[in-house]
Specification:
Strand content: 25-35%
InterPro entries: ATP-grasp (IPR011761), ATP-grasp_carboxylate-amine (IPR003135), ATP_grasp_subdomain_1 (IPR013815), PreATP-grasp_dom_sf (IPR016185), PurK (IPR005875), PurK_C (IPR040686), PurT/PurK_preATP-grasp (IPR054350), Rudment_hybrid_motif (IPR011054)
Number of helices: 12
Domain ATP-grasp: 104-290
Bound molecules: adenosine-5'-triphosphate, magnesium ion
Shape: globular
Pathway: Purine metabolism; IMP biosynthesis via de novo pathway; 5-amino-1-(5-phospho-D-ribosyl)imidazole-4-carboxylate from 5-amino-1-(5-phospho-D-ribosyl)imidazole (N5-CAIR route): step 1/2
Catalytic activity: 5-amino-1-(5-phospho-beta-D-ribosyl)imidazole + hydrogencarbonate + ATP = 5-carboxyamino-1-(5-phospho-D-ribosyl)imidazole + ADP + phosphate + 2 H(+)
Distance between the termini: 45 Å
Structural class: alpha+beta
EC number: 6.3.4.18
CATH class of the largest domain: Alpha Beta
Largest sheet: 9 strands, antiparallel
Helix content: 25-40%
Number of strands: 18
Radius of gyration: 20 Å
Mean pLDDT: 96
Length: 379
Amino acid sequence: GATLGVMGGGQLGRMFVHAAQRMGYFTAVLDPDASSPAGRVSHHHVQADYLDEAGLAKLASQADAITTEFENVPAQALARLAAQRFVAPAAAAVAIAQDRALEKEHFTRCGVPCAPNAVVNDEQDLARIGDDLLPGILKTARLGYDGKGQVRVRTREELRAAWDGLKRAPCVLEKMLPLAFECSVVVARGRDGAIVHLPVQHNLHRDGILAVTEVYAGNVAPDQAQRAIEATKAIAAGLQYVGVLCVEFFGLEDGSLVVNEMAPRPHNSGHWSIEGADVSQFELQVRTLAGLPLTQPRQHSPSIMLNLLGDLWFARGAEAVTPDWAAVLALPGTHLHLYGKTEARKGRKMGHLTLTGPSVEAVRAAARQACALLGLPGF
Ligand code: ATP
Ligand code: MG
Ligand code: MG
């Protein structure tokens, strides 16, 4: 049988491996960690750094086609693999998604508006920043995630201190926008240019980390939802993208929609699709990698996803205590995912809970009860 390879062994890789194995593929995972969530469940596990030549050669020898689950996989590593195997998404697209400045240029090229922003690479750039971008958020151009690598600034003094604090790395300063809501769209694009999408996902973040995703009719006003889907398709097509791509948006109080960022892979906000749709974002990733047809996924149940962060393990004190899953699983339509991470840490994504139900009211009620049982804030 064919073997599908993935760069990165986190939870996204693990769910990719599950989807691939269900469809009869063997899997190979490259990750530096010997006990990574995906490596532990894969047929092959190459324990190597992402740029290690011997590791890359081994992955290329084991896998017929290779994708990535790790946003910051070095683009050179993908380019190296592409000399031998089919790689999707391509190194060039991943390189753009990894850099906030390049990403924003691409959005603008595609005619999709971003928050007002300016690149800060050096002292001159910093001096040129206009007061119109304040208050703002200074974000490192590369390697940020879950709100890490960003600082909120109100004044020029705070901006300078924040840039120093970020070690004067290349950054983008974004104007702080009055968000009415946040949403995201997952698309999959095949080698032939065919493109399908999941329904718009309404996202609630806490402390810069995704907390709750709600997916059902009316979660986002239809007009804004349609604009988000069209924008995501244009962004994917503009990259000649092959694979699964997620684009995050801000809905503003005046009814407008601006793009935030994109991820060149399945996304936390798309996890609900495993149980809530007939084709999940991970099956879409398998299909694009294996060159299989893409059909438009159909959502069959209103769905809500609750992220399970390591903080939950510390609700009762400094010792990690496993939450009472049995109580939650007694609620109808709950689907528990734990990623097999050995150590719980505050702010670490340990798993998620998807609730599906026969109606929006039913799924919202069950999700509220799950929050109460787990001691999570409501939504
Ligand atoms: P992710 O884990 O999604 O990759 P990240 O670290 O790349 O996160 P962003 O998505 O840029 O960070 O920002 C995290 C959150 O901070 C956003 O989802 C939003 O809630 C808030 N935020 C970011 N930029 C702005 C902005 N310009 N105006 C208002 N809020 C913002
Ligand atoms: Mg990000
Ligand atoms: Mg984000």
